[in-house]
Amino acid sequence: MPTFSWEEIQKHNLRTDKWLVIDRKVYNVTKWSSRHPGGHRVISHYAGEDATDAFFAFHRDLDLVRKFMKPLLIGELAPEEPSQDRTKNSEITEDFRALKKTAEDMNLFESNHLFFFLLLAHIIVMEIIALFTISYFGNGWIPTLMTAFILATSQAQAGWLQHDYGHLSVYKKSTWNHIVHKFIIGHLKGASANWWNHRHFQHHAKPNIFSKDPDVNMLHVFVLGERQPVEYGKKKLKYLPYNHQHEYFFLIGPPVLIPLYFQYQIIMTMIVRKDWVDLAWAFSYYARFFITFSPFYGVLGAILFLNFIRFLESHWFVWVTQMNHIVMEIDREPYRDWFSTQLAATCNVEQSFFNDWFSGHLNFQIEHHLFPTMPRHNLHKIAPLVKSLCAKHGIEYQEKPLLRALMDIIGSLRKSGQLWLDAYLHK
C-alpha cells in the first residue's frame, strides 16, 4: 500500500482535491463528499487533516460506514510519521480516547427510550393545552397571549428534542430514529431535517471556526471574537455601528432569527435542493396549524399568530444556543486536537432541573460536543471525568450560573464591538 507524509497529505485540502486520514489510513474523499449523508461541507472541513476522532464521534454504525470507506482507501501514513498532524497534542488525544472507551464501558451511549418518550409526550400535551385554551376562552388578547406562550414553549422543547434525534438518527442509522426526527422537526416545527443536519454537523466538526462553522457566520451584522473585529476595523468596514452591537442585538438577534432568517432559509433550501420528503413534512405542520387556528383568527390572523409564536421561540433559542459559544474563542482554524478544539469553543451552565429543561440539556455543551451521540440524559454522568481530564492537562473547564452565562453574551458583544472601534479609529 502506498505511504504518504503529512506534508503531502496537507496539500490535498482543496474543493476539487480532498484527502483525509482516519486511523493512519489515507482516504480520497473528493468525489464521495457530494454523496456524504452529513453533507459535503462537513467532510471537507477535515481535508488534509487527521479526522480520526471526528469520524468516530460522528459515526456509530461503523460496519455500515466502512463499506463506503473501502473503495476510498488510497494508502496510509508513512511509518515514521506521527499519528497526529501539525501541532495536535498526541497525549491529550490518547487520554480522550481512553475516556471515550470508559464511557462506552459504562453504556453511556445507550438511550433510555422512556426518557425521550416522556419528552415527546409533554410536548404533545402542551399542544393540546394550547388548543383547549383558545377553544375554551376564545380569541381575546389574554387567551391569545397564553396560547402563543404555550405553543412557543412546545416549539422550543420540540427543537431540543429534534436536536437529540438528529444526532441519533444520522449516526445510528435507525429507521425509527429517522422517522421520529422528521416527525418532530417537520410536523411539530415545520422545518427540515436535512437542512438542520447539514448545518449543525458543520458546527460540531469545527465549532467557532470562521468559514467552517455556519453558526458564527453573522453576514456582517455582528463581529465576533477578537480577531474579526480588528480585521474589520483596520479595513474600515462599517456595515453597521459595531460598537453598539451589544445594544442592537436585542432588536436584530433574538427577535428575527427564526421568524425571518431561518424560516425563509429553510423553505428555500428544501425547494432548491428538491427535498420533497422534508417539504411534505413541513407542509403537514402548516396545514395542521392553519386548519386549527384559521377558524379563530382567519388566514391573515393565523399568519400573524404563527409569526408571533416564532418571535417568542426565537428569543428562547438564541439566548440558549449563544450562551455556550459566542462568549468563547472564535477565530480561524487553529488545528487543535478534538478535545482541545471543543473545550476552546464551548462552556457549560450549572445543572439544575430547570436549567436542564430550559436548555434541553445543552447546559452540558462541553460533554455534548465531545460525545455528540451520547444521549442527553447521560451527559451529567461523564462530566466529572471530563473535568478530571481537563485538570490533568491544564485546560480550562468553564461552568457558569445561567444568568451569568446569558449576561456574558452581551459582555462579549460589547468587548468585540470596542475592539472594532479602536481598530477603526486607529490611523
Automatic annotation (TrEMBL):
A cellular-component GO term for this protein: endoplasmic reticulum membrane
Membrane topology annotation: Multi-pass membrane protein
InterPro entries the record matches: Cyt_B5-like_heme/steroid-bd, Cyt_B5-like_heme/steroid_sf, FA_desaturase_dom, Fatty_acid_desaturase
Gene Ontology MF terms in the entry: acyl-CoA 6-desaturase activity; oxidoreductase activity, acting on paired donors, with oxidation of a pair of donors resulting in the reduction of molecular oxygen to two molecules of water; stearoyl-CoA 9-desaturase activity
Species lineage: Eukaryota, Metazoa, Chordata, Craniata, Vertebrata
The EC number(s) this enzyme carries: 1.14.19.3
Organism: Sus scrofa
BP term (GO), one: unsaturated fatty acid biosynthetic process
Protein name, entry field: Acyl-CoA 6-desaturase
Coiled-coil stretches: none
Compartment(s) where it occurs, according to its Swiss-Prot or TrEMBL record: Endoplasmic reticulum membrane
Catalytic reactions of this protein: (9Z,12Z,15Z,18Z,21Z)-tetracosapentaenoyl-CoA + 2 Fe(II)-[cytochrome b5] + O2 + 2 H(+) = (6Z,9Z,12Z,15Z,18Z,21Z)-tetracosahexaenoyl-CoA + 2 Fe(III)-[cytochrome b5] + 2 H2O; (11Z,14Z)-eicosadienoyl-CoA + 2 Fe(II)-[cytochrome b5] + O2 + 2 H(+) = (8Z,11Z,14Z)-eicosatrienoyl-CoA + 2 Fe(III)-[cytochrome b5] + 2 H2O; (9Z,12Z,15Z)-octadecatrienoyl-CoA + 2 Fe(II)-[cytochrome b5] + O2 + 2 H(+) = (6Z,9Z,12Z,15Z)-octadecatetraenoyl-CoA + 2 Fe(III)-[cytochrome b5] + 2 H2O; (11E)-octadecenoyl-CoA + 2 Fe(II)-[cytochrome b5] + O2 + 2 H(+) = (6Z,11E)-octadecadienoyl-CoA + 2 Fe(III)-[cytochrome b5] + 2 H2O
Keyword Secreted: no
Domain Cytochrome b5 heme-binding residue range list: 1-78
EC supergroup of this enzyme: oxidoreductase
Pathway recorded for this protein: Lipid metabolism; polyunsaturated fatty acid biosynthesis
Pfam family membership, one: FA_desaturase
Superkingdom of this protein's organism: Eukaryota
Family: Belongs to the fatty acid desaturase type 1 family.
UniProt entry keywords in alphabetical sequence: Fatty acid biosynthesis, Fatty acid metabolism, Lipid biosynthesis, Lipid metabolism, Membrane, Oxidoreductase, Transmembrane, Transmembrane helix
Transmembrane segments: 114-137, 248-266, 286-309
PANTHER family xref list: ACYL-COA 6-DESATURASE, FATTY ACID DESATURASE 2
UniProt-listed SMART domains: Cyt-b5
